Amino acid sequence: MQCGVLKLDQPGEGIGQIPLYCISGAFYGEITPPNVPHKDLPILRGTAIPVPELAHWGAFFLNEGSNHGYLLLAPRHWKVVTADTGMDGSVKIELQDPSNPQIRMTYLDTGSCGGCAIQRIGSYFPGMKAWAEEQGMVPDLPAFENRSMLNEHVVQYRMQKDAEAYQTFGAAYRFTGQDHTAFSMLEIQAPEAQLKVVQNMLDFFAKYPAAFVY
């Protein structure tokens, strides 16, 4: 359901906008928030999508409360197929291209499950396997073709799937504090020819990887 627009302050190009689609999710906790935010989302600054290409994109938003939710960028014709929030605050959102459901994206956030976050940080981030094991968790290392750290908190990667028509591209976010550990990830399955589209989605995730406060 379109519920407004998301405004983007493009460097050197002024203010552009894309449709905002509010997701109706399944909530397994005690409270089910309204799916429409109670006020307009703020203007986003520093996005790297040229204004002529904005007609291709939509913003998908899962509202989680009175001031936050999860904000994703995807081609505007894509459809939401899953939007679940667990009792521990974990979130899973899946979108797919309705013309080819094999082209899809999955967003995951481990919520308040600290052990889940530690296990996944050890699995996805270079050099963190031993740290996770010290915390009592056993990482499950995926078959990466490559990985690169974008900054202290975000890694981008590509899975090793040489014989398949669709490649898997992803990015993951970590936060490790004294009293809080967090992990989220975005993974996209798409053909190599759509790499530019995929990279725009991953770049957006790298800017807004966790709960979006408005």
Write the layout of secondary structure elements.
Blueprint (H helix, E strand, L loop, with lengths): L1 E9 L3 E9 L3 E2 L16 E2 L11 E7 L4 E8 L3 E7 L5 E7 L2 E10 L4 H11 L4 H6 L9 E6 L4 E6 L7 E10 L4 E10 L4 H13 L4 E2 L1
Parallel strand pairs: 1-4, 2-5, 3-7
Antiparallel strand pairs: 1-2, 5-6, 6-14, 7-8, 8-9, 9-13, 10-11, 11-12, 12-13
Number of helical stretches of at least 4 residues: 3
Shape: globular
Across the major sheet, the strand order is 3-7-8-9-13-12-11-10
Distance separating the two termini = 19 Å
The main sheet comes to: 8 strands, mixed
Q: What class would the helix/strand composition place it in? A: mainly beta
C-alpha Rg, in Å? 17 Å
Written as H for each helix and E for each strand, in order along the chain, the element string is EEEEEEEEEHHEEEEHE
Give the strand tally: 14
Uncertain runs are none
Helix content: 10-25%
Q: How many domain units?
A: 1
Summarize the structure in words:
It comes from Paenibacillus cookii. This is DUF4850 domain-containing protein. InterPro entries: DUF4850. The chain has 214 residues and is mainly β. The chain has one domain. 14% of the residues lie in helices and 44% in strands. The protein has helices at 114-124, 129-134, 195-207; strands spanning 2-10, 14-22, 26-27, 44-45, 57-63, 68-75, 79-85, 91-97, 100-109, 144-149, 154-159, 167-176, 181-190, 212-213. The strands form 2 sheets. An 8-stranded mixed β-sheet has the order 3-7-8-9-13-12-11-10, with helices on both faces. The chain has a 6-stranded mixed β-sheet with strand order 4-1-2-5-6-14. The chain is globular and about 45 Å long. The model has no long low-confidence stretch (mean pLDDT 94).
